[in-house]
Structure formats: structure tokens, C-alpha cells
Known about the structure:
This protein is an alpha/beta fold. The chain has one domain: Rossmann fold, CATH 3.40.50.150. It has helices at residues 3-14, 18-22, 29-35, 53-61, 74-83, 101-105, 126-135, 156-167, 176-186, and strands at 43-47, 66-71, 89-93, 111-117, 137-148, 190-197, 202-209. A 7-stranded mixed sheet has the order 3-2-1-4-5-7-6, sandwiched between helices. The longest helix has 12 residues, at 3-14. The radius of gyration is 16 Å and the shape is globular. It starts with a helix and ends in a 5-residue tail after the last strand.
Amino acid sequence: MDQDQRMDRLYAVQRHFYDATRRYYLLGRDRLIEGLPVPAGGSVLELGCGTGRNLAALRSLRPDLRLCGLDVSARMLETAACKLKGMDVALARCKAEELDLCSHFAVEDGFDAAIFSYALSMIPDWEPALEAGLAALKPGGTLAVVDFWGQGGLPVWLEGAHRRWLKLFGVAIRPELLAYLGNMEREGRATVELESIRKGYAFLAWVQKRNHNI
């Protein structure tokens, strides 16, 4: 089964109550939205925008921004379109790693910021997806990533139960993701700042794309 079919099946019903339930354990999303460094009149892309919850929050906080979102699930995009109705947000359906700025959003020079909010832990080919997010940025732009890190000091028995429960929704905690971000910095392609959310339960990474023309 293709990723888009799997996501459509997974969220066919869940999308209707997704936001009401996820707020209890998808921690750090509001911190990301409030701290996103975007200039006045700038542009933001969310990769894996789901129900459009984050884009709606951004529009409320920063009505000056140009907002775009993509997702692989047609069902989720239906919900996002309803949530974002009248908010002037462009939506596109594709895998993150297949993003084409010109064809999907008529953007040529890149975005000021891009977001992965608990999306990379659900994307099988997360490395090319992450690279697509970085490539979508203007030089000096910021890629903001919030996702699961550890278990926040949970007891061993509860940690196992939590991981099994997340697996039911296609979620895989990826400790190797942080190593990958570190390699981006060592290669001189970005600077990376990390924040711990709830004692290591999740992390928030601010990845600034290096301007090689400087």
C-alpha cells in the first residue's frame, strides 16, 4: 500500500477529532509557531500540514505572512481546506520529498521558513523529506522541526507501551534524526539550535540554512 493510501485510510475518521486529542501529547507546536523567525510579509511552508491546525494558528498570529502547506493525505487536506477557508492559504498534495516549489506553489526563490511538526516521525523516507525542506528555503531561512525525542523520564514499562501505541498510528521515534541534523551543521550547510521539550520528551530544532554567498 502506498504512503498516500495508508495515510488516507489511517485518517479517514481520525481527522475529525485529531486536533482535540493530539494537543495532549504533540508538545512544543505552539512554541514553534510563536518563535518562528519570519520577516514581515515573509513566507512559510509546512510540510505535512495535516488538518491545517498550525497554519491556522500562524495566520491568526501573523496575518502578514504568505502561508503554504502540503500533505500526502487527501483526507487530511480536505479537513485543512475547511479549517483554513477564507484564510488565503495555498495547499498542495504531494510527498514532502517530491516537493517542487514552482509547480506546487508558484514559488521560485524559496521560503523564509519551513516547518515539520511531528511529521518526520511518520514519513518513511524522512531523510530526503528533510533535505527537501532545507532546499525549499531561501539562504538564511529557518527550518523548524518539532518531534519526538525520548520518553521524558517515563518508567520503562510505560515507555514501551507509549512506543507501541505510537506505532499504531505509523509513528516511529527517530533518535538518528538529531544525528542527521548535526551532520548538516558539520558539513557547513546549516546552523542548528536544539531545545528540549518536557525533559526530553520531544525536541525543537531551529535549522538555519547557510548562505554560501557570504
